[in-house]
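Folding follows sequence. Below is one example:
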Amino acid sequence: MPDPTHPARTSASDTAYALTKELILTGRLPGGSLISEGEIAERTSLSRTPVREAFLRLQSEDLLELHPKRGAVVVPVTPGEAEDVLELRQALETAAAAPRARRGLAAHHEAALRELIERQRDRAAAADVEGFAAVDEAFHRGLVDASGNTLSSRFYGTLTDRQRRMSVFALAPRPERLGLLVEEHTRLLGLLLERDAAGFAAALDAHLTGTHQAGAARSGGTA
C-alpha cells in the first residue's frame, strides 16, 4: 500500500519499477542480462534509492536476482517454468470454454474478443511483436473472463507477466507468424460461438504448441 507520507518516493519507485519490468517483459532485457541501479536511475532521471526499491519488488516477482555491488541479473524463463505456464493456461482456457459451449457466449464478451482480434490484426500488419504480445495476452484472458468464473480469472491474471514474456520470446524471431495467430484466434472465437467445446480444446492445444515450440527449441527445452 502506498505510504501517503512519502508520495514522491512511492511515485519514483513505481516509475523505475514500471520501466524495468517493461524492459524485461518485452525482451529488451533478455534473461541473463546484467543491469545496474545506475543505468535505470540515469534512464529515469531518478536517484538510486527508488530504483533499489523497484529492484527489490522485481526480485520478489522472480524477475530479477540481486547481486550486491554488482547489480541485478534478469532471471531467465526456464524450460520447466514455461511448460508449467502453458499447462495451466490450457487447463484454464479449456475449462472456460465448457460453460460457454453449454450456454453460449454473452454479446459483450463476443464484442470485446472481436475488438481484440482486430487490434491484433493491426499489430500483425505492423510486425509489432511487443504490441501483439500484449493484445494476445488480453485476448486469452478475455476467453477466461467470458466463463464468468471470477476465481479462474483471478488466477489466470497471475500468469500475465510470464505469458507476455514467453510470447515475445517465441515470436520475436518470426514476426511473419503474427497473421497466422490472428486467424487462429478467429477460429477459437468461432468454435466458442458454435458451442464446440471439444473443437475449441483441440484448436487451443495446436495454437499454444505451435506458438511456443520455437521458443522451446531456442531454450533447449519445452516452452
Remarks:
- Strands lie at 34-35, 64-67, 71-74.
- Residues 35 and 72 are 5 Å apart (CA to CA).
- The chain has two domains: 7-74, 79-219.
- Residues 7-74 form a domain with the Arc Repressor Mutant, subunit A fold (CATH 1.10.10.10).
